[in-house]
Amino acid sequence: MEKLNIICVDDQREVLSAVVQDLERLSNWINIEDCESGAEVLELLDDLDADGEHVAVIISDHVMPGMTGVELLTTISQDSRFKWMKKVLLTGQATHSDTITAINTAGVSHYFEKPWNAEALTECVRTLVTHFIFDSGLDYQPYHEELDQQVVLARLSSSF
Fold first, then answer.
1. C-alpha distances in angstroms, 54 versus 31, 58, 86, 119?
2. What domains appear along the chain, each with residue ranges and CATH number?
3. Whether 57 contacts 30, CB under 8 Å
4. What averages of pLDDT result for each successive group of 10 residues across the chain (160 residues)?
5. DSSP 25
6. How far apart are the first and last CA of the chain?
7. 17, 35, 82, 96: which has the fewest Cβ within 10 Å?
8. Burial class (CB in 10 A: 0-12, 13-18, 19+), 13
């Protein structure tokens, strides 16, 4: 079974802890990493890639010191090693312009405003991980029970 990861990044520890806690029910089949800065994320990505692990989803705050979430996600989207990674912007302070840039430049799949709905975020991540597995060509069967079954059925029926 391939090792899958989700990375959550926010410079506010209490927000980061809340996101990780909300995603905790996915932790029986996917590893959840947390980072407090864009620089920390880039270092972690290099380490995980070197170990042959996959990052399926990154959830990023926007307003962070040093590197904004949009800048981070844009940097990641330009790295071919992570072309299948799904990106989520979870923030309360992005402007309309920031959001457009995130979608057009960084390839953000979803946008959530703070405060977010934990159930909606978790189900979104489950769906994005399912798409990641199929898009990247990984074997879905070891994760079958945990994946978004509607996406699995759609992907399997479209392959016939």
1. 10, 11, 11, 24
2. 4-158 (3.40.50.2300)
3. no
4. 92 97 97 98 98 97 92 96 96 73 82 94 98 96 96 88
5. G
6. 25
7. 96
8. exposed
